[in-house]
Design brief:
By secondary structure, the protein is mainly α. It has 2 helices and no strands.
C-alpha cells in the first residue's frame, strides 16, 4: 500500500538481503493511492521480477548441468 500511495520504499533497496544489491531494478510506485494504483504497482513488480530473473540467469556460470559427484 505504501508504494501505491506515492512512497518509494522497498526493503530490498533500503536494506538489501540475499543478492538483491547485485541486480539492477527499480522500486515500483504510484502516487494515486487507489485500487488501480495498487494493481499497477503489482504489475510493475512482476516486470521487475522478470528483469531480476534474467540478470540472475546471465550470471549462472557455465559448465556441466549434472551433478557428477553423486
Amino acid at each position: 500500500m505504501l508504494r501505491a500511495s506515492g512512497i518509494q520504499w522497498d526493503l530490498r533497496k533500503v536494506d538489501p538481503y540475499e543478492s538483491y544489491n547485485q541486480f539492477d531494478w527499480k522500486v515500483q510506485w504510484q502516487k494515486e493511492g487507489d485500487s488501480l494504483a495498487r494493481y499497477l504497482v503489482r504489475i510493475g513488480e512482476m516486470r521487475e521480477s522478470i528483469k531480476i530473473i534474467q540478470q540472475a540467469v546471465e550470471k549462472i556460470p557455465g559448465g556441466p548441468y549434472e551433478n557428477l559427484e553423486v
